[in-house]
Amino acid sequence: MTNIRPFTSSDLFQFNNINLDPYTETYGNFFYMMYLTKWPELCLVAEGPDGRIQGYILGKVEGTGDNWHGHVTALTVAPEYRRLGIARKLMQSLEEYSEKQDCHFVDLFVRVSNKVAIKMYENFGYIVYRRVLSYYSGTPTEAEEDAFDMRKALPADKEKKSLIAPKDPIRPEELE
């Protein structure tokens, strides 16, 4: 039985099995600690009965007015625990919290090449809102990659205005 619980600083020493996935963005400890300090209720881990971390989510709430929203900064599940509903449970926790905060929508960014994740988010009710050009930095061996900005409207957005997308792709510096 998987237990969803708050992410703690000691979890930083136990999640390497998850962060080795090539689609998982890995951040420095300062970044994780900033999230744990600012948005502790949106930083969760999925823990197995053996105490092993199976996945985690980092999120935040931000914006103003109609742009007040929940944001999924990182969601990942270790390869051996995928297709067990763990990502869905983590996403539901973030969405429920965002709903209680009267957010209008939840958004996230995903690599355009990550077809499995895109399909999963679509199954969770998200749509591709827009394309963000060169969102993911390149490395000496890899090119930059575009991202899809995906969104799901929440009850506070009764008219679903948050899903009305601009026609053209944008660059990262144009993001609000």
UniProtKB/TrEMBL annotation:
GO molecular function list: protein N-terminal-methionine acetyltransferase activity
Q: Could you confirm whether the keyword Cell inner membrane appears in this record?
A: no
Question: Catalyzes what?
Answer: N-terminal L-methionyl-L-glutaminyl-[protein] + acetyl-CoA = N-terminal N(alpha)-acetyl-L-methionyl-L-glutaminyl-[protein] + CoA + H(+); N-terminal L-methionyl-L-aspartyl-[protein] + acetyl-CoA = N-terminal N(alpha)-acetyl-L-methionyl-L-aspartyl-[protein] + CoA + H(+); N-terminal L-methionyl-L-glutamyl-[protein] + acetyl-CoA = N-terminal N(alpha)-acetyl-L-methionyl-L-glutamyl-[protein] + CoA + H(+); N-terminal L-methionyl-L-asparaginyl-[protein] + acetyl-CoA = N-terminal N(alpha)-acetyl-L-methionyl-L-asparaginyl-[protein] + CoA + H(+)
CC per GO annotation:
NatB complex
Domain N-acetyltransferase: from-to ranges: 2-155
Q: Which SUPFAM superfamilies match?
A: Acyl-CoA N-acyltransferases (Nat) (SSF55729)
Q: Which family does it belong to?
A: Belongs to the acetyltransferase family. ARD1 subfamily.
Q: How does it assemble?
A: Component of the N-terminal acetyltransferase B (NatB) complex which is composed of NAA20 and NAA25.
Per its UniProt record, what PANTHER family does this chain match?
N-ALPHA-ACETYLTRANSFERASE 20
Kindly provide the name given to this protein in its UniProt entry. N-alpha-acetyltransferase 20
